[in-house]
Amino acid sequence: MLTPTPEFNRELGFPRTVAVEYPYGRPVGEVGDVKGQREVLLKTLGALENAKSPGSVVNLPFEWHEAPQDTKWHPSEISPIVKLFLSEIKKAGTESRR
Amino acid sequence: MTKVVDGFKFMPPSLGAWIGKDIPTENYQGEIPWTPLKKPIKEVRFSLMTSAGISLKTDPPFDMERERQEPAWGDPTSRELPSTIREEEINVNHLHVNTDYIKQDINIILPLSRFTEFEKEGIIGSLAPTCYSYYGFQLDPTILLTETMPKVASRMKEEEVEAVLLTPA
Q1: pTM for the whole thing?
Q2: Residue B33: how many CB atoms within 10 A of its CB?
Q3: Which of B30, B34, B71 is nearest residue A15 as measured by Cβ atoms?
Q4: Over 80: is that where the pLDDT of B1 sits?
């Protein structure tokens, strides 16, 4: 699995995880960036070839070219589940800042 | 220093705090399935599967309307995607990420062109004729696991797939 959120895999247990710090929805890379996509995928294939035991996690070294607030990964409409729990989400944010 | 990926870097802090409350702080402690790779990558037959909600325009799209009515429900079905498809042949439906980028370049999450190149270059053995998409928002994954994925696995066996790259949205 090539994932931007390796933390989620702690809930299940995956045979082989490759983590990449890219925005949600674009784990292989930026639109049209053939060279960058190839680099991510070749590292991922290398992780598959080199993994020797279940539960391996390989962190890729790549950095996204935009600041988080500029990535525009959000859906065009607020997710139904987020809309439903919006007050709890805001509360969790407030508590985490204390 | 070795980089450790922060999966919450791009998430709004409040949403990250809310989701993070349910994420274990330790690695999974149970048994993890393991099938050793039996041959070099250059001989392996691959398929690709993403949770991004991609469907052919000739197939029914993933059901977003029911999720809008039932926010805890996510479409538990899957779609087959020929490994030769182009962006103009697909719909992308996902209520949790911006789907515009995938419509511009499917390779950012289902790297069909890159794996086709790898096959031609002898980096992998081959890319199977069929790749797959399902819908990643599954608070109750029962149908996905008991009905949908066994059919996907069966199709992969028919096409003699030996390894699958999974790419969550």
Answers
A1: 0.96
A2: 8
A3: B34
A4: no
